[in-house]
Inverse folding.
């Protein structure tokens, strides 16, 4: 890569990180190019697509933050505390970082490297869930797919209330966690979603292209 092209690529990476974290992964590419001080065509010439740019600048950030939450949740002695910590911290990330919120809800499934991070994150979540269920503190009918109801709705609430009531998501998460305790369980009116249903619903909920 020529020196000028390399400089432009670095400018675009920096601008993309800033705007993705300010407004989410759907921010118009023209705005990223404008902030970087390069043309829209330069962005496409260097990265080719939104998904390629996302994979270039978001993967390491998302992997580090989501992996760390799962590790800290599993390191807690109290299984319920670990589960609650995982849910609360991921929801907090959604509230303060629109880019991570879009990652968690799999908004751009065409970003292959990022989807690998998502898959690893949900596998870690499954370990957090199973540990809490083995301890008898999390209702046994809760599945990894049910995280859709927590993270999907939290993403919408956190984004809509960001200016008017930035802590509103905490109230919603507290209600959900209380309802997930084993002693609060009642028979559910419908069965769990299949993996295919989870991905389809997440895509529609997040407005994925």
């Amino acid at each position: 890569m020529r020196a000028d092209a390399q400089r432009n690529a670095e400018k675009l990476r920096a601008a993309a990180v800033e705007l993705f974290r300010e407004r989410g992964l759907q921010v118009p590419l023209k705005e990223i190019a404008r902030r970087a001080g390069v043309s829209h065509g330069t962005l496409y010439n260097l990265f080719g697509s939104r998904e390629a740019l996302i994979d270039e600048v978001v993967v390491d950030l998302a992997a580090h933050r989501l992996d760390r939450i799962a590790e800290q949740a599993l390191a807690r002695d109290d299984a319920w505390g670990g589960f609650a910590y995982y849910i609360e911290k991921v929801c907090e990330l959604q509230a303060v970082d629109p880019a991570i919120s879009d990652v968690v809800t799999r908004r751009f499934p065409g970003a292959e490297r990022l989807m690998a991070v998502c898959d690893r994150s949900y596998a870690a979540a499954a370990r957090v869930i199973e540990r809490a269920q083995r301890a008898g503190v999390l209702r046994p009918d809760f599945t990894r797919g049910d995280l859709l109801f927590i993270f999907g709705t939290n993403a919408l609430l956190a984004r809509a209330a960001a200016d008017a009531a930035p802590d509103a998501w905490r109230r919603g998460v507290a209600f959900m966690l209380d309802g997930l305790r084993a002693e609060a369980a009642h028979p559910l009116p419908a069965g769990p979603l299949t993996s295919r249903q989870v991905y389809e619903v997440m895509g529609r909920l997040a407005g994925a292209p």
In short: The chain has eleven helices and no strands. The chain has a mean pLDDT of 89. Residues 3-57 form a domain with the Arc Repressor Mutant, subunit A fold (CATH 1.10.10.60). Residues 146 and 192 are 7 Å apart (CA to CA).
